[in-house]
């Protein structure tokens, strides 16, 4: 069974066709990279895959189950789309603990491991509001991976990170893939996509086009 199937998906808001007949089949244990100019529809596609918006037409299946019919959200998903709602007066650990308790039982040990994995200190007593942009981004990645999800949907996971942070996130994503996760990543950093992705897509004005074929035309 495929990890994700997007079948004739379109999304219209007002008169604007934001996603235009998107079709793609994603297999388990692979990394899929998405390029596209600002406003091309990457985030909207990711939102649709996570069940956060309903397509105007078409359907999305996760592990064979249709979103908004069989399930509301993918059953095992880690998401980083825009800035997650962290609480400014909690520490990094406290933030993930609250999110973990909302989702399902994740042990304190697993939360600590995922915080360490992104290069942060789970014992750090600083509250989130004192975190730098890069630290916030790292915590957001820890949040996405802490459940060891089958599906990881990451919109610009490296954009606020220094070189070392970018390297670390790439390593983490390759490990997640080894574990069997299916990973969708949108990045303006072409190296991220080149290094990580097993398959690359380009989104242009809401349409999905094979990355290689269109490269010269679009960039
Ligand atoms: N709630 C909304 N209502 C109306 N239009 C929207 C809404 N959300 C997004 N759009 C429009 O949909 C289009 C695609 O937006 P999207 O955020 O998916 O782009 P993107 O490819 O992720 O861009 P970026 O690289 O800047 O993150 C844009 O033209 C945007 O203005």
From TrEMBL:
<comment type="similarity">
    <text>Belongs to the ABC transporter superfamily.</text>
</comment>
<dbReference type="InterPro" id="IPR003593">
    <property type="entry name" value="AAA+_ATPase"/>
</dbReference>
<protein>
    <submittedName>
        <fullName>ABC transporter ATP-binding protein YybJ</fullName>
    </submittedName>
</protein>
<dbReference type="Pfam" id="PF00005">
    <property type="entry name" value="ABC_tran"/>
</dbReference>
<feature type="domain" description="ABC transporter">
    <location>
        <begin position="4"/>
        <end position="218"/>
    </location>
</feature>
<dbReference type="GO" id="GO:0016887">
    <property type="term" value="F:ATP hydrolysis activity"/>
</dbReference>
<dbReference type="GO" id="GO:0005524">
    <property type="term" value="F:ATP binding"/>
</dbReference>
<dbReference type="InterPro" id="IPR027417">
    <property type="entry name" value="P-loop_NTPase"/>
</dbReference>
<keyword id="KW-0813">Transport</keyword>
<dbReference type="InterPro" id="IPR003439">
    <property type="entry name" value="ABC_transporter-like_ATP-bd"/>
</dbReference>
<keyword id="KW-0067">ATP-binding</keyword>
<keyword id="KW-0547">Nucleotide-binding</keyword>
<dbReference type="InterPro" id="IPR017871">
    <property type="entry name" value="ABC_transporter-like_CS"/>
</dbReference>
């Amino acid at each position: 069974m495929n990890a994700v199937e997007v079948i004739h998906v379109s999304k219209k808001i007002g008169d604007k066709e934001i996603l235009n007949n998107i079709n793609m089949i994603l297999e388990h244990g692979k990394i899929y990279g998405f390029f596209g100019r600002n406003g091309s529809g990457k985030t909207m596609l990711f939102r649709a895959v996570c069940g956060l918006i309903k397509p105007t037409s078409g359907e999305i299946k996760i592990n064979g189950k249709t979103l908004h019919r069989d399930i509301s959200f993918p059953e095992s998903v880690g998401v980083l789309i825009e800035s997650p709602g962290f609480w400014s007066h909690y520490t990094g650990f406290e933030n993930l603990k609250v999110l973990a308790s909302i989702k399902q039982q994740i042990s304190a040990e697993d939360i600590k491991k995922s915080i360490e994995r992104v290069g942060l200190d789970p014992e750090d007593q600083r509250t989130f509001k004192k975190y730098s942009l890069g630290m916030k981004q790292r915590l957001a990645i820890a949040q996405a991976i802490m459940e060891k999800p089958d599906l990881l949907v990451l919109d610009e996971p490296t954009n606020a990170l220094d070189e070392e942070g970018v390297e670390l996130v790439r390593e983490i994503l390759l490990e997640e893939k080894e574990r069997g996760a299916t990973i969708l990543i949108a990045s303006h950093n072409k190296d991220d996509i080149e290094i990580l992705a097993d398959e690359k897509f380009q989104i242009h004005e809401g349409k999905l086009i094979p990355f290689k074929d269109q490269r010269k035309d679009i960039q």
